[in-house]
Design a protein that fits this description.
By secondary structure, this protein is mainly alpha-helical. It folds into three domains: 95 residues, no CATH class; 106 residues; 55 residues, no CATH class. Helices cover 36% and strands 6% of the residues. It has eleven helices and five strands. The strands form two sheets. A three-stranded antiparallel beta sheet has the order 3-5-4. The protein has a two-stranded antiparallel sheet with strand order 1-2. The longest helix has 19 residues. It is elongated. The chain starts with 14 loop residues before the first helix and ends with a strand.
Length: 307
């Protein structure tokens, strides 16, 4: 009988403690509890039916319940299983989730006045949505970024995007004449396919200068993301090959004559300083590659690219 214990988590009542409580003195009657009030608690076995036993075990919330989960009277609301509270509900060793009351739905009666007002509101909404220049069929949201880029406001069959997209703020402005000259030199011998060569050049410059996402560029130029990736890869190689002559390399004598004193003392063989920008990378699976690409300054994995 000593093996009968309470199965509730954190409860240590067992049959041995129950038998010892019968020998305790009752202060109310002056006798032992076996002669008057009885034991301080009782142990109750699980119900016999399958459904009631399942609810019994659900209340215990144990990962590995015993074969015969007995529960003491301290864990019942009425001190024992009753009709109103047949399962344990008190001091179960965990916080049971709160039961949310279901919301009652009440159908409102539609009156003629409210019906007329709703139809008038719908008509006003339709008028407002008809005036929106950009909207999606599924979300009816406006593309806010198009308000700042007039070249994306018209469909693809309108004048080329490069006609207005080169008008940037003053700090990185590129005039149409300079853009036209650069385009003529780079696009010599290039065939016009889905995109005009000027649009391809503009797409590449936007990626280099603003570091926009390829999905964003694809949305602006009305093409797929794969087309943007392929165009940027091809034009980077083309620009590197044809614009190499624009990088000035001074003679070593000129560099030595204009070199700062600190460089003459510590770095006398310096010929140029390459400015690199950090681009975030996805964490590599290889731990060595992850450690080599981690930047303590930015707190993430990056790759250095010259600009």
């Amino acid at each position: 009988m000593t093996s009968i214990i309470c199965s509730v988590r954190g409860c240590h009542n067992n049959w041995k403690k129950r038998r010892a409580s019968l020998q305790q003195l009752c202060f109310e009657h002056g006798k032992t509890r076996a002669e008057c009030c009885g034991a301080t608690f009782n142990l109750y076995p699980p119900p016999s039916t399958d459904e009631a036993r399942r609810m019994w075990l659900k209340a215990l919330n144990l990962k590995k319940p015993p074969k015969k989960p007995n529960i003491c009277s301290f864990n019942f609301v009425d001190g024992r299983p009753s009709v109103q509270h047949p399962y344990p509900e008190k001091w179960l060793g965990y916080v049971p989730p709160a039961k949310k009351a279901r919301r009652m739905l009440v159908r409102l009666q539609e009156t003629p006045s409210t019906s007329f007002a709703s139809h008038e509101t719908d008509a006003k909404t339709d008028e407002m949505t008809d005036g929106m220049p950009h909207r999606d069929a599924s979300t009816q949201w406006e593309y806010l970024f198009m308000e700042h880029h007039s070249y994306a406001a018209d469909p693809l069959h309108c004048p080329h995007l490069h006609d207005q997209a080169t008008q940037c703020p003053e700090q990185h402005q590129l005039s149409l004449d300079a853009f036209q000259s650069l385009t003529d030199e780079l696009t010599a011998g290039c065939s016009i396919s889905q995109l005009h060569p000027k649009d391809k050049l503009l797409m590449t410059l936007m990626k280099l200068r603003l570091n926009l996402l390829q999905d964003d560029i694809a949305e602006r130029f009305r093409v797929s993301q794969s087309v943007v990736s392929r165009v940027i890869s091809q034009w980077l190689d083309l620009m590197e090959e044809k614009m190499r002559c624009y990088v000035p390399w001074l003679p070593r004598e000129t560099i030595q004559a204009t070199m700062p004193q600190c460089f003459k003392e510590h770095y006398p063989s310096t010929t140029c300083i390459i400015d690199c920008s950090e681009t975030p990378l996805q964490k590599a699976h290889n731990l060595d590659s992850r450690g080599e690409s981690y930047s303590h300054y930015y707190g993430q994995n990056t790759i250095s690219s010259s600009s």
